[in-house]
Amino acid sequence: MSDLHTLGAIELAALIKDGTVSAVDVTRACLNRIDARDSEVQAFQHLDPDYALTQAERLDQHRAAGHPLGKLHGVPVALKDIIDTADYPTENGLAADQGRKADRDATIVARIREEGAVIIGKTVTTEAAYYNPSKTRNPNNIDHTPGGSSSGSAAAVADFMVPLAVGSQTNGSVIRPASFCGVVGFKPGFGQIPRTGVLELSPSLDQIGVFARSVDDAALLADVMAGADGTDDGVPISAPPRFGAIGETDPPVRPALAFIPAPDWADKAEADARLGFEELVKAIPGETDQVPLPLIYRECLSMHRVIMSTEMGRHLSRYLGEDQPISDALRTILEEGKSYSAHDYLAARDWQSVFSSGLDEIFERYDALITPAAYGTAPFGLSSTGDAGACTLWTYCGLPAITLPLLVGDNDLPIGVQLIGSKGEDGRLLRTANWLVRELAAGDEEE
Questions:
Q1: Catalytic position from the list 22, 71, 122, 149
Q2: Residue 173 known to be catalytic
Q3: Phi/psi of residue 415, each to 5°?
Q4: What pLDDT score was predicted for residue 100?
Q5: Is 357 exposed, middle or buried (0-12, 13-18, 19+ CB in 10 A)?
Q6: 383 catalytic, yes or no?
Q7: What is the percent of the chain where pLDDT is above 70?
Q8: CA-CA 20 to 30 A from 128: which of 94, 235, 275, 435?
Q9: Among the options 71, 80, 122, 187, which is catalytic?
């Protein structure tokens, strides 16, 4: 029982379902790990062990009564502290929101609860899910950043405090911390998961993502949250995406992959990251083409900022008063958002579809694109969450992305490998990711 906290979500759900362990056993194991480690890692913002165990006890009673079990029955899940919960506070990483409690759960929280999960606590976010660093440390080396803004969610999963956690991404806030902490980070494409009840930064860019220690576990949690809720206009009514059902199948043929360097890769990539990707491309079975994007794609960095700052300036303007205790970094981006003209903003929005159309042509030939999740390992120190530029284009275009902990830097810290799928092909991306993990593992065994 002592190692239950190290198991994945799917395995835990199966053990609970057949009665091998209880939801209380699993929750207590995770709480013991949190108690042992969180004073150092500082991944959690709000944690009530007694309440978490009460949830687990109710779930065990539910099972004992013979009721149907949900997909996440008894599995602990942590939530980024910008996601509304009716029980725990939701403080958005802002001093002005200390003690804030929402009237109801966010849509995704309600869905997670319906599937029987234990909401174990709220994880640390950076201030308003922007770049100002939080207190969380990288569990691989506490002298390094865990990334942001979903700092606590990534660190909690990486340190085996919880098997699953939810985050959000407006630029690189899922993929980058997953890379830095060495876990799987999955950001479904724009419009797959409703954001109702989640702090609104930039509705044209905000996307929900998940952290797990396997591709299949990430797909399970994303599946539970996906689908229109009738409130978030960004999520159209459509058939369920079936992330897991597609992701766990074998590809009908060997996937065709292309390596695309991140914008500014030549200037910013660390030497060990550059070498790691060169070796990775050689290790993938079959030929992996290198496909450099036209130089115009570097403009996505500035266009993304126009959209993000303009929309943040609008939706977070309530925090701009002179008496509001916000950082200079947050105040700067909110003020900047007021400086752009309607022409600047609309042009940046128009280019989203232009860039996406250009990428569609690449996806006619390739199943997925391989690209860095970050420019290297987690930076030393806690004064920055790292550069999000390796994620910007894919978030700007709303494409599904997943990062896999496949590389290690010279300092023994992880380097994530990001795979990008075409719009609406999230399941296919997960299938390709699973294939890549298996093929690389088989190659290592042969050596």
A1: 149
A2: yes
A3: -130, 120
A4: 97
A5: exposed
A6: no
A7: 99
A8: 235
A9: 80
